[in-house]
Amino acid sequence: MANSEQLDGDLAAKTSARTAARLSVAPADTDAGPAGRPKFPRDNGFQAELGLRVAGYFRATGRRERDCWQMYLKTAVILVWCAVSYALLVFVTRTWWQALPPAILLAAGLGAVGFSIQHDGGHRAYSRRRWVNKLAAWSLDLMGASSYLWHWKHHIFHHTYSNVSGVDSDIELGAIVRVSPHQPRRWFHRWQHLYLWPLYGLMAGRWHLWGDFKDAITGWMGPHRIPRPSGWDLAVFLVGKIWSIGLLLVLPMLFHPVWAVLVFYLIVTAVLGVIMSVVFQLAHCVEEADFPLPDPRTQRMASAWAVHQAETTVDFARRSRVLSWYLGGLNFQIEHHLFPHVCHVHYPALSEIVEATCREYGVRYSAHCTLWAGLTSHYRWLRRMGLPVVA
Questions:
Q1: R_g of the chain computed on alpha carbons
Q2: Which residues fall within 8 angstroms of residue 125, CB to CB, at 6 or more apart?
């Protein structure tokens, strides 16, 4: 009997270790990365322990890491939300004041698609089935952006090298913005804390009509060389662009004046751009987030990958169920960066495990209590980055 219990215990330990390794995803180049890119030192025990504790949570609760019924129900709600908003905007409204509410609702619905359906699918956190994740990820193509380019920009460059200037493409926003202390300062950055907010509204339209085409044709994404889409990836890219342009511009022009369609296209994409930009910025471009650089001689980072992720990322509004639902758990960015393959419906529970483990290992864990606290911190950070650099 004792031998049987020991065998059961050994099997559980091995299963827990395998689950932990699968859940906690470090980059392939932790110890020896591609030439010119930073390398992370080996885990100091923090990531392994965190993975074991999260695996223990799933074992104790019996909940699935992916294929959660809440996620499938949420997907249906969001898709109905978008369909109804679009139908009202294009086929029902006749005046600008009638069209404005469904336009804003449509923008918010498209944001929910990106935050929840596409984001979980793109990280393979939606389902254990590859084809289900692909379908969820392709929802980004149907709303105007490219899931292929998103994979490189967000999944590869941002998630591996978060807040590392010159490598994390999500903080390389062009000369008009300075969000890292390691980026060059220009005279007009002095006012970026004022002018940047409306510029966030250009992001979605830029991706849709110009940025994605430029990246796909040139094979460059900021400082990074990427493979141009080909085969199935190219087909999805083109079909997505044709579908989204047809849905957002061509079809509405059959029912409304061209000028009205263009105005409301700008309204929808502006609201969508502001929502998506601000959510990202509150997680990384705030006062509490680190912006570390590798050693210039060895290209090695000072901290192990999991520690780096926790200290370059900030949570916000963790107790708001409404925001957590709408943002697809992206207000729990620390948990998302450490466990990108876990469905976001688990992030509130995982945050308690992550915060406690960070405390034990002396890893800084930062969180703003409210959305407003995150917004004001981002504002102050923009203002600080715009001030003259003191030599």
A1: 22
A2: 65, 66, 119, 133, 340, 341, 342, 343, 344
- 101: number of CA atoms within 13 Å, CB side? 8
What pTM did the predictor assign? 0.89
Contact 149, 212 (CB under 8 A): yes
| Contact criterion met (CB below 8 Å) for 172 and 184 | no
Whole-angstrom distance, CA of residue 213 vs CA of residue 215: 6
**Measuring CA to CA, which residue among 85, 81, 111 is closest to residue 100?**
85
* CB contact set of 34 (below 8 Å; sequence gap of 6+): none
Query: With contact defined as beta carbons under 8 Å apart, do 25 and 341 qualify?
Result: yes
Comparing C-alpha atoms, which of 137, 143, 117, 138 is closest to residue 345?
117
- Per-residue tokens: 210: 């110009």
pLDDT: which is higher, 25 or 388? 388
- Number of residues that this document lists for the chain: 391
**Residue 150 pLDDT exceeds 70:** yes
Tokens of 154: 């967000």
- Whether 18 has a pLDDT exceeding 50, the answer reads no
- The SS3 assignment for 22 reads helix
Q: Please give, one letter per residue, the 3-state secondary structure of 213-278.
A: HHHHHHCEECCEECCCCCHHHHHHHHHHHHHHHHHHHHHHHCCCCHHHHHHHHHHHHHHHHHHHHH
- For 106-140, give the DSSP string: HHHHHHHIIIIIIHHHHTT-S-SSHHHHHHHHHHH
Please, what is the average pLDDT of the chain?
A: 90
Q: What is the pLDDT of residues 304-358, one digit of tens each?
A: 999 999 999 999 999 999 999 999 999 999 999 999 999 999 999 999 999 999 9
Token pair listed for 108? 């918010």
Q: What is the torsional sign of CA 334, 302, 376, 197?
A: negative
